[in-house]
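--- STAGE predict ---
source: upstream dedup step, 1 unique chain passed
mode: sequence only
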Amino acid sequence: MQSRKTDQVKDYIAQVKDQHRKDTLPFVSERARMVMAQRAERDDLKAKQDQRWIEETKARQDRLNTGLRGIFNRLTGTHRATIKRNEREGSAHLCPP
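--- STAGE serialize ---
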C-alpha cells in the first residue's frame, strides 16, 4: 500500500512538472525573443557610438592647420592650444573605441 501511494505521488509530481513546462513555454520563448532584440539594439548602439567617435575625432583633427598656416600656428602657440582643447574634448567621452 505504501509503494502504491509513492507511485501515485510520483505520477502526480510528474504531471505537475509537465504542466509547469507547458505553462512556462510561452514565457521562455518571449524571453528568448527579448534577449535577441536587446542584443541587436546594443550592437546597433555600439556601431552608432563608434561612428560618432570617429566623426568627432576627425573633426578635432581637422582643427589643426597644415602647411604654412600650421607653421604659423606653431610659432604663435595656437597649435598647442588647439591640441590641448582636442585632448580635453577627447577625454570627455567616457567610452572611446
